[in-house]
Amino acid sequence: MKQNYLASLGLSPALASIVWLIPPLCGGIMLPVFGAISDQCPATFFFFFSSGKRKPFIAGGALTLAASLLVFAWSGDLARSLDGSCRPDRLHSCALARDISVLSILGMNVSVQALQAGVRALMVDVCGVEQQSQVNAWAGRMVNAANVVYYGLASMDLRRLLPFFGDTQLKVNCALCACILLVTGGLTCSISTEETATRPSRWSGIRERFRDVISVLLSPDLLHIQAIQFLTWFAWFPYMMYIRSYLDGFGMKSTPSTTVQYGSLALLFQSVIALLVITLLPPLASRITKRRSAGDNTSTADGNGFDWKTHRNIWAAAQVIFASALLGITLTSSGIVRVILVGLTGTSWAVIQWVPFTFMTVKIRASSTAACYLTYKEDSRNVGAMVGLFNLSIVIPQLVSMLLSSLIFSAMTDLLHGPAGCSRLIFFISSLMSFLGVVLTTRLKFM
């Protein structure tokens, strides 16, 4: 929807490429910055709350993200109010509307990093090691439930159902998202309880703190996890970018005048499967852990009760499913089979929203004796900085895979007989990356 709206504003290809670079760059730069600042944020840093160092970033991120969504959806109206020449029939030539849209996208991506930094660090701060699997599973459930709701709403005529929110589908969607953000952000800040953060005597030792953080992130366990994350997201990003257009190219004729687009159907199926998996699989893993813990000789849980071997095996199996499904998508000629295979990738999507973050947060939370975890005082942990820097293992493969995909489309479109052939090659490469991730995952040992 964002891409179609920007195209209607006459966004040039050069500017469009810059827009697509905004999310990964903000994720790689702003998330570690917000996380590090929140680590040293005292209770009196903002006046919104009496205690807590993560809540200002959650509240501020939610507010600015909601505002950016509204500005994006109403960019044409704002441009018309500032420049009378930006009429509805001439928006494609209105530079002011394009500028407002691009700036609002920048605002979205910066504010979502503040929100994510606060929420992810709060999850580590508040929940113990034995709760990290549960809290990350719940985070995954919320993400996938939101996906299902979004695809359901996208199939409705929201302009008719909620006309007071706006006169276009985009406006109603953005207004709904803004309301949900404000409600959920407010609930999180009012219900969650943080330890009172004391104001540090000075903002010094930043270089030493980051050196300590990086030393832990480069420890064998976390380095191994980040390598798996790199391969996982290297496989997933091109798939997410091109799967819908690839499937829509094989639209099924339901009547002589209508065409059923496979892309929307497949992605809805994927979201439903992901929601079911993230809902049912974590309790099943917990039961397996309890059964193994019942016998001393068969337990694979560490001293904190975290069963790393069960989670590792789930992660490896999910990557096998994703890699196999991608191969099937490139080889089959049946549209229905493609839809089913895309749906099966929801299994892997659910797991990568849960298990890698659980491994990371358990390792950070359990490192209570590490210098990077207890720097100034007991309540001044460097959780935010570590979570932010761990995100680089997601951002870097996104940039690399985008570059590789662009090169394939620009240099091999004619050789591979069109965009569909380029997409097949990209999916094949993604499948190989995922299979390589399986190899690394099976060798993972969590000490």
Automatic annotation (TrEMBL):
<dbReference type="GO" id="GO:0005886">
    <property type="term" value="C:plasma membrane"/>
</dbReference>
<feature type="transmembrane region" description="Helical">
    <location>
        <begin position="425"/>
        <end position="444"/>
    </location>
</feature>
<keyword id="KW-0813">Transport</keyword>
<dbReference type="InterPro" id="IPR036259">
    <property type="entry name" value="MFS_trans_sf"/>
</dbReference>
<feature type="transmembrane region" description="Helical">
    <location>
        <begin position="383"/>
        <end position="405"/>
    </location>
</feature>
<keyword id="KW-1133">Transmembrane helix</keyword>
<feature type="transmembrane region" description="Helical">
    <location>
        <begin position="170"/>
        <end position="192"/>
    </location>
</feature>
<feature type="transmembrane region" description="Helical">
    <location>
        <begin position="213"/>
        <end position="239"/>
    </location>
</feature>
<feature type="transmembrane region" description="Helical">
    <location>
        <begin position="259"/>
        <end position="281"/>
    </location>
</feature>
<feature type="transmembrane region" description="Helical">
    <location>
        <begin position="314"/>
        <end position="333"/>
    </location>
</feature>
<feature type="transmembrane region" description="Helical">
    <location>
        <begin position="56"/>
        <end position="75"/>
    </location>
</feature>
<protein>
    <recommendedName>
        <fullName>Sucrose transporter</fullName>
    </recommendedName>
</protein>
<keyword id="KW-0812">Transmembrane</keyword>
<keyword id="KW-0472">Membrane</keyword>
<dbReference type="GO" id="GO:0008506">
    <property type="term" value="F:sucrose:proton symporter activity"/>
</dbReference>
